[in-house]
Amino acid sequence: MIRVPQVRVIDADGNQMGVLATKDALLAAETAGLDLVEIAPTATPPVCRIMDYGKYKYQLSKKAKEAKKKQTVISLKEMKLRGKTEEHDFQFKLRNVKKFLEEGDKVKITIIFKGREITHTELGMGMLKRVAEELKDVATIEAQPKLEGRSMSMVVAPAPQKVEKAKTEAAAAAQKDDAPGQTQKE
Q1: Which of 26, 49, 83, 178 sits most deeply, having the most CB atoms within 10 A of its CB?
Q2: What pTM was computed for the model?
Q3: Structurally, how many domains does the chain consist of?
């Protein structure tokens, strides 16, 4: 696939072999039982390396999987309320919002207005302010309340110090579970 007449070649050990004709570089790779892979096609002359391409691709996929394991995924959960939501239902939904925040997820809190309720958007705004007040110690408001059609919504994210605390607690719990030969006291 390499179509240039000359390439700079690096052998399997990382040593430079110099500028060689493409045919000679392919022959050197073939005698080593490896592949000639173009690393820097824009250089003059292009740089090629003698390596096991299959092994190289495998190592790249392992690194990608390892990086994927270490990343944290933050999802957006949604909690829907109405302007007429009663106190018990409000507290129940608020507990669920706190649980989502402790797990490290963002939460979109939506107030839905049906029929003539749209004329009393101040009730929805008051409810969202109450939610923000109740969550001030565990969350930060990421998107302020805004009216969009027949719904009003705001987005809250976990407070940074709470997220770090939850991560360290989870790591400690995982380490405690993995410790061999230790029994837990109840």
Answers
A1: 49
A2: 0.54
A3: 2
Query: Can you tell me the distance from the alpha carbon of 168 to that of 185, in angstroms, rounded to the nearest whole number?
Result: 21
The pLDDT tens digits of the residues spanning 28-67 come to 999 999 999 999 999 989 999 999 999 989 999 999 998 8
SS3 string, 140-171, reads: EEEEEEEEECCEEEEEEEECHHHHHHHHHHHH
Domain that holds residue 141: 76-162
- With respect to residue 178, please indicate whether it lies within any of the assigned structural domains: no
Region 146-159: mean pLDDT is 92
Instruction: Kindly state whether residues 154 and 95 are assigned to the same domain.
Output: yes
d(CA 31, CA 51): 12
**Which residue from 134, 59, 63 is spatially nearest to 96, judged by alpha carbons?**
134
Looking at the structure, tell me whether residues 27 and 92 fall in a common domain: no
**Mean pLDDT over the full length of the chain:** 86
CA atoms within 13 A on the CB side of 121: 11
Q: What is the DSSP letter of 58?
A: H
Q: Where is pLDDT greater, at 57 or 73?
A: 57
* Residue 116 sits in the same domain as residue 45: no
Q: Which CATH number goes with the domain that contains 100?
A: 3.30.110.10
Residue 180 lies in a domain: no
Within-domain flag for 184: no
Give residue 66's Cα distance to chain centre. Answer: 13
Q: Using omega within 30 degrees of 0 as the cis cutoff, is the peptide bond preceding 45 cis? A: yes
